[in-house]
Design a protein that fits this description.
Number of domains: 1
Number of helices: 2
Number of strands: 4
Distance between the termini: 27 Å
Structural class: alpha/beta
Shape: globular
Radius of gyration: 13 Å
Length: about 100
């Protein structure tokens, strides 16, 4: 049986739990997952505040959970939609509103 590669954009925000997001990703059986963090209050790389450290810890646990639960490779982490211009995804999960894949 031939399986297509599938790329998912997983949007992390405050409206869903990480477990719900991982469950939604697992249902899609992806091969690759890119994670978008919609948190305008934090610069992922340089925010050393308690909020920034907590977000990085949360993301580390989330990325590991995605890989363990789905077998998919997490291939990227973005802090804004602008960083994803030109990227294509088969499905988009999570976030405030469902967004169709381009």
């Amino acid at each position: 049986m031939l399986h297509c590669m599938s790329d998912i954009l997983a949007i992390v925000d405050e409206t869903n739990t990480d477990e719900q997001l991982v469950e939604e990703i697992a249902r899609r059986h992806p091969h690759r997952v890119t994670v978008l963090v919609e948190d305008g209050k934090c610069d992922l790389g340089s925010d050393d505040s308690p909020h920034g450290r907590a977000l990085r810890d949360r993301l580390a646990a989330l990325l590991a959970s995605i890989e363990q639960r789905t077998g998919a490779a997490v291939v990227g982490l973005a802090g804004s939609r602008d960083q994803l211009l030109g990227w294509r995804f088969d499905r988009i999960v999570g976030g405030r509103d469902p967004v169709p894949a381009p």
